[in-house]
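TL;DR need structure tokens for one chain.
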Amino acid sequence: MQQLPDLGKNTVGKPDPWAKFRGLTWWQLVLSIAPILLLPIGGAIGGAIGAAGLFTNLALARRHLSTPLKALAMLGVACAAYLAYLLIAGLLYNLVNG
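>> reply
TL;DR here they are.
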């Protein structure tokens, strides 16, 4: 009888799409994912800004910083992403309806 492949494991040569999230603590995951929540709110613009914030926070989570400094930096990136979205959305709104 033929052996079925184990679908739970990645085959050789396939990158793990969740590798960047593995090994992070719960608060690092929450702060990393927070900026991407702009996607349903802001569409393509919110998604682009949110993705930039997500990848920035993932890079910060992997750096060797003290825990409070890392938490503040990641929170600052999330807040900056939301403020950048509000600024760009407001400018585009004024440009269109101006």
